[in-house]
Structures are given as structure tokens and as C-alpha cells.
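FORM 12-B: Structure-to-Sequence Request
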């Protein structure tokens, strides 16, 4: 038996990788396993523009009718259900995969928005939510006069 030098950082990283791949080897493997176990969350971008906040959410394979958006205080919540079925038939192989499950993502907004003027669009698997800032929150530009 060889003597192996113990390196704490390497052991910790090895443990993280082992845990990850153990999760991937469970019976509910792949994308479906991530959804069923509650680990899948849609990717989100939050853009702070001069007069509005824009949130872009990636929801590939999700139907518009399966998405719910709510705003409570300064927390924007996107939730819904994913139902995806994929089937590929070729001459020498057959592939079929299903993914079902619920997801939710809550984003804490950095400022107050005008709740009455929120707009949401869904196109090509990307949800875009535009939220105008309240007038009193928008920065006021001050011009400097020359002497």
C-alpha cells in the first residue's frame, strides 16, 4: 500500500465532485432528475436601466400557459411547471425522454417598481419582464452651470 499525502483542499473538492456524480447516477438521471429533485431553476438576468428594471428568464421547452409571475413587496417570483417530451427515431437507434416537474425562482428587486405598468413577453423560450421604476426612485440628473 502506498502512502498518499493528505491535502485538505483536494479532499474537499474531491468530495464535491463525488457528491455531484453520485447525484447524476440516481435512477432519475439527467434533466428529469434535476427537475424532480427540485434542483432545476431557470437562469435569470436582472438589468437595471435608467428608468426600468428588465428581467430575462430562460425557460426552454416551457409553454407560456405554464408560467406564473407574481410580485410581493420587492420580490418577483416566477414559477410554473415543465412538461417536456422528446422522441428521436433514427435508422439505428431510438431515444425518448420526458421531463416533468415544478420550478420556482424568486428575485429580490433592488428598488421599488410601478406595479401597475409591469409588462411581460414570452418568445422563443425567453420570458422578458419590464418593470418601470417609480418616479421618485429614478435618478435625477443635475446639470452643472459654467461660471
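FORM 12-B RESPONSE
SEQUENCE OUT:
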Amino acid at each position: 500500500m502506498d502512502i498518499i499525502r493528505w491535502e485538505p483542499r483536494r479532499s474537499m473538492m474531491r468530495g464535491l465532485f463525488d457528491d455531484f456524480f453520485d447525484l447524476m447516477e440516481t435512477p432519475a438521471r439527467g434533466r428529469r432528475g434535476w427537475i424532480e429533485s427540485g434542483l432545476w431553476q431557470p437562469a435569470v438576468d436582472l438589468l437595471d436601466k435608467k428608468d426600468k428594471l428588465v428581467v430575462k428568464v430562460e425557460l426552454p421547452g416551457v409553454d407560456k400557459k405554464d408560467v406564473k409571475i407574481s410580485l410581493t413587496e420587492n420580490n418577483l417570483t416566477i414559477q410554473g411547471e415543465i412538461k417536456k417530451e422528446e422522441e428521436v427515431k433514427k435508422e439505428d437507434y431510438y431515444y425518448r425522454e420526458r421531463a416533468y416537474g415544478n420550478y420556482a425562482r424568486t428575485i429580490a428587486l433592488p428598488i421599488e417598481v410601478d406595479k401597475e405598468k409591469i409588462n411581460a413577453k414570452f418568445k422563443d423560450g425567453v420570458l422578458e419582464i419590464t418593470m418601470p421604476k417609480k418616479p421618485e426612485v429614478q435618478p435625477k440628473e443635475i446639470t452643472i452651470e459654467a461660471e
